[in-house]
Amino acid sequence: MPKSKSRRSPKRAARHRPRAAAAKLPKNAVTLVVVMRAKEGQHLLLEAELRALVTPSRKEEGCLRYDLHRSADQPGIFLFHEVWETRDHHTAHTRTPHFLRWNARKDSLLASREAAFWQQLA
Predict the structure, then answer these.
(1) Among 4, 33, 82, 92, which is most buried by a count of CB atoms within 10 Å?
(2) Contact of 79 with 71, CB cutoff 8 Å
(3) Which long-range contacts does 18-26 make (Cβ < 8 Å, 24+ apart)?
(4) Hey, what CATH class is 26-118 in?
(5) Smallest Cα–Cα separation from 31: which of 78, 69, 80?
(6) Is the dihedral of CA 72, 73, 75, 79 positive or negative?
(7) Mean pLDDT of the chain
């Protein structure tokens, strides 16, 4: 008698999959984390402006990751998680037309902005 196939639900099967190891970044790579809070009544416009940065930024030389997040608890707070091959690649990013457009508009949309560069340890 042949063995019957296990009929686990997809959710249950997902719990038993081994986790993928995190990729080691290039030696000089930097991660930039930017947290932005929208001015009162500006969160929808801010989100639209931030979304407009994603596609062109991901196409830039040296961009390894460029992800936009919105707070699950406070819709007016956004986070960029960016990874660049080098700090120079990020500097070049700040000179692109899409970034300059954003830079000219950000003050009317942001109540606050915090940014920090990070380097991967492990």
Answers:
(1) 82
(2) yes
(3) 24/120, 25/64, 25/83, 25/120, 26/64, 26/85, 26/86
(4) alpha beta
(5) 80
(6) negative
(7) 89
- DSSP states of 8-53: --HHHHHHTSPPPPPPPPPTT-EEEEEEEEEPTT-HHHHHHHHHHH
**Collapsing DSSP states into helix, strand and coil, what is residue 96?**
coil
User: Is residue 66 classed exposed, middle or buried when 0-12, 13-18 and 19+ CB atoms within 10 A define those classes?
Assistant: buried
Confidence of residue 23 (pLDDT cuts 50, 70, 90): confident
Q: What does the alpha-carbon distance between residue 88 and residue 74 come to, in Å, rounded to a whole number?
A: 33
pTM of full prediction above 0.70: yes
